[in-house]
């Protein structure tokens, strides 16, 4: 039950302990660093995420006279949710699933477009399902086609691989028949699907099973929360993108079910697991059924047809499950569809077992030749993904045009662009594995080229997709050069501005150049949307060209260019070989870099913000995406604030969030009852709330939700710097200006050496906001707005600084 509501307004005698709840950003910050004290005590929580205090502050509420000038400091440390041992780098293999899950949350603000919102969600979920099928198909390509069908069926390849001896066709053993080799190899992709199911189920229990605070469900007359998200009548924003004046509304992130979608995740897990098993079953039974229909062998043809029919029927049910139902944010999704999550994967697994038995039936005269049937499947997958992305773009654009916001990235096309990148990542990763395995099995030859090769190689379309990667990289040189030139020019223009800011200090050309370069580089963050858009558009066009080339020529690029002139032949060969090695090398570097990021704090700070943005959002589109840490962190923070305000009725609470911690803080505040939010002040610094989340996720952090957050809390201050590449102003649109943003703060604090600061001051950028005097000033303003301070008592000692550090 929610805590009892406090008095509607503080009385003149409202005096009590002040608490500052610190929430760090990315980077694995320790409680000792946050509280600036080696002696800390865990107040509540566990080894994964917990609240800490200094040892001397444990009973701070009993001695409010000690904290007249400084609040009691608490640190919520959630780094255990996103960092740990190096084995977690394996989560990076699930990056395409995480990226397509992001696309679900990037839809434009929906104003009275319930059907369009549903269609948007269906399209994203279908794209996510296609990625699961693609990953499983790639595993089947490696295990069933390249190893069991091609290499084990060709003497020259099998002889060089002694571990394939028992499968070799020339040895004539029990496993030498093609169907039995396929049946055995099917264990590899089936085990991969089972592993994904296990990880999804286990991570849900470990990370996302925290029930949010009890709260009042929304009116059944507004089942999708449209009025709560956008206000009665759904007012449109003005010309500057600011929402027109309305009463405060409860945004989507404040709904009871937003951080608890157990039912949807369970349904999607069942559907994707079934899709994986069905993909393996189709790969196993397809070759055997085709042989039976053509050769009149010992197995009746109708048996294979029956199994294929069962696979097709189960696949249709799986697609229907994915399309039928999305998230329920109005209420907590606590129920489970027991029959569905039990029988759908079970039926798919039973069909896989039937396919294995059917393929393993004795066919003495069957010999494997060429490639395993499946070339068309990869082509159709690529074509289907492209069509789904185009349809998603049409729907997203329609939603945006209904209520355009100039700050929304790519005019509402951010979701489709990111979805296209997810498909490209899936294609590169799966194609890279297939290419590298084929090169390894083929020895000195180049698969698909037809000379000095032992095996035909992977599907032709994978070679075409690999060949467009060098072309894509060359095309990207143009925007990269443009950005470098523009940044250099911007830095030169900033020089006089910076010297004027620090006047009358003597100009130092080197110091000015360095500050200007850092400011200009930090501004590159605002150019990211159109760079991502260019990459996505080029990927879509080149991918379409690759599919068309594979379909028309039915040859790898190197062979398709034969007879078309020496220049074209050499370019095609170079593109094919370079692309194959690039995706293999990129895959290795990707995993190695991810492992280093989890073990090296400095590397984690570099890429951590991107990873933490991806894993901040619940798994609404893909159940095999990395777990959502916010489904643990947000209820933790909301519960702590609710409990403290309930037990300290005269207390004042400031929740202070840095970087990604500010997003967690805002999300937790939204989850609180209205009366509790009125007793809380919010302090954010280095915050990506508007610069990143507001632009890329406008339906959840756009102008109106942020305005609603400002109106629902007692007060809010946001600190930002021009040298910060991540944080920025939150741009609350209200008249008069509410004064939430304080910045840009001066960075560095001193231009040169001064009497007070005799050594050169560092340029802090995104870190150490507490080192700026503006931080203490903003916190004091918030505490004053919450209520009067406790009068100083004679003989009461002043408490030492407890601002702590919460940088990421």
Automatic annotation (TrEMBL):
Coiled-coil portions: none
Annotated keywords: Membrane, Transmembrane, Transmembrane helix
Membrane-spanning segments: 89-107, 119-139, 182-199, 270-289, 301-322, 343-361, 381-401, 413-434, 464-485, 527-552, 579-598
Stated name of the protein: Integral membrane protein
Ranges for region Disordered: 218-243
Superkingdom of the source species: Bacteria
């Amino acid at each position: 039950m929610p805590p009892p509501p406090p008095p509607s307004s503080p009385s003149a005698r409202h005096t009590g302990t002040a608490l500052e709840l610190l929430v760090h950003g990315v980077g694995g910050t320790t409680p000792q660093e946050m509280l600036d004290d080696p002696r800390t005590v865990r107040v509540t929580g566990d080894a994964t995420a917990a609240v800490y205090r200094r040892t001397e502050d444990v009973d701070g509420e009993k001695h409010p006279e000690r904290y007249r000038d400084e609040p009691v400091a608490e640190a919520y440390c959630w780094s255990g949710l996103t960092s740990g041992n190096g084995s977690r780098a394996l989560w990076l293999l699930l990056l395409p699933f995480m990226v397509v899950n992001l696309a679900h949350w990037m839809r434009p603000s929906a104003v009275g477009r319930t059907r369009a919102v549903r269609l948007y969600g269906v399209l994203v979920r279908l794209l996510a399902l296609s990625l699961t099928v693609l990953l499983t198909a790639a595993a089947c390509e490696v295990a069933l086609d390249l190893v069991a069908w091609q290499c084990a069926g060709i003497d020259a390849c099998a002889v060089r691989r002694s571990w394939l001896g028992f499968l070799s066709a020339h040895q004539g053993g029990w496993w030498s028949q093609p169907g039995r080799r396929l049946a055995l190899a099917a264990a590899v992709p089936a085990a991969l699907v089972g592993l994904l199911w296990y990880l999804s189920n286990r991570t849900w229990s470990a990370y996302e099973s925290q029930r949010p605070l009890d709260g009042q469900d929304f009116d059944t007359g507004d089942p999708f929360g449209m009025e709560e998200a956008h206000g009665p009548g759904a007012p449109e924003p003005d010309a500057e993108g600011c929402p027109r004046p309305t009463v405060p509304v409860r945004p989507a992130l404040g709904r009871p079910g937003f951080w608890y979608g157990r039912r949807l995740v369970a349904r999607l897990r069942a559907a994707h697991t079934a899709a994986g098993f069905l993909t393996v079953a189709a790969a196993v039974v397809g070759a055997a059924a085709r042989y039976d229909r053509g050769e009149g062998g010992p197995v009746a043809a109708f048996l294979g047809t029956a199994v294929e029919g069962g696979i097709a029927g189960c696949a249709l049910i799986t697609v229907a499950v994915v399309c039928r139902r999305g998230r329920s944010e109005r209420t907590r999704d606590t129920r489970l569809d027991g029959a569905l999550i039990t029988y759908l994967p079970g039926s798919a697994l039973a069909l896989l077992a039937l396919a294995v038995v059917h393929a393993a039936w004795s066919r003495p005269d069957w010999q494997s030749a060429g490639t395993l049937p499946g070339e068309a499947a990869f082509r159709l997958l690529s074509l289907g993904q492209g069509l789904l992305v185009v349809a998603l773009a049409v729907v997203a654009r329609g939603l945006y045009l209904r209520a355009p916001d100039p700050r929304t990235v790519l005019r509402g096309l951010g979701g489709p662009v990111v979805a296209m990148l997810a498909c490209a990542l899936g294609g590169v990763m799966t194609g890279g594995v297939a290419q590298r395995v084929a090169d390894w099995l083929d020895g000195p030859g180049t698969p698909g080229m037809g000379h000095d090769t032992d095996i035909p190689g992977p599907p032709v379309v994978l070679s075409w997709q690999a060949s467009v990667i060098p072309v894509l990289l060359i095309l990207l040189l143009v925007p990269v050069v443009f950005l470098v030139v523009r940044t250099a020019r911007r830095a030169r223009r900033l020089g006089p501005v910076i010297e004027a800011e620090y006047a009358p200090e003597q100009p130092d050309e080197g110091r000015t150049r360095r500050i200007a370069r850092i400011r200009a580089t930090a501004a590159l963050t605002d150019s990211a949307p159109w760079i991502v858009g260019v990459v996505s558009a080029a990927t879509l066009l080149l991918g379409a060209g690759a599919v068309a080339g594979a379909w028309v020529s039915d040859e790898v690029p190197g062979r398709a260019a034969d007879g078309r002139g020496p220049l074209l032949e050499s370019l095609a060969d170079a593109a094919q070989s370079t692309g194959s090695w690039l995706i293999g090398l990129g895959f290795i570097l990707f995993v190695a870099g991810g492992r280093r990021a989890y073990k090296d704090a400095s590397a984690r700070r570099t890429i951590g913000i991107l990873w933490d943005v991806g894993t901040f959002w619940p798994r609404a589109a893909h159940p095999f995406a990395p777990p959502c840490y916010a489904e643990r962190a947000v209820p933790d923070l909301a519960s702590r604030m609710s409990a403290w305000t309930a037990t300290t009725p005269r207390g004042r609470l400031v929740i202070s969030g840095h970087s990604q911690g500010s997003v967690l803080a805002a999300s937790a505040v939204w989850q609180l009852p209205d009366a509790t939010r009125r007793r809380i002040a919010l302090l954010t610094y280095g915050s990506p709330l508007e610069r990143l989340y507001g632009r890329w996720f406008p339906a959840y952090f756009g102008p109106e939700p942020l305005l609603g957050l400002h109106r629902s809390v007692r007060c809010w201050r946001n600190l930002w710097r021009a040298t910060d590449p991540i944080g920025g102003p939150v741009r609350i649109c209200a008249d008069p200006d509410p004064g939430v943003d304080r910045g840009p703060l001066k960075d560095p604090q001193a231009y040169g050496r001064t009497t007070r600061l005799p050594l050169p001051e560092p340029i802090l950028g995104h870190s150490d906001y507490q080192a700026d005097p503006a931080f203490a000033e903003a916190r004091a303003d918030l505490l004053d707005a919450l209520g009067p301070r406790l009068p100083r008592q004679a003989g009461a000692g002043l408490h030492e600084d407890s601002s702590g550090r919460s940088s990421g």
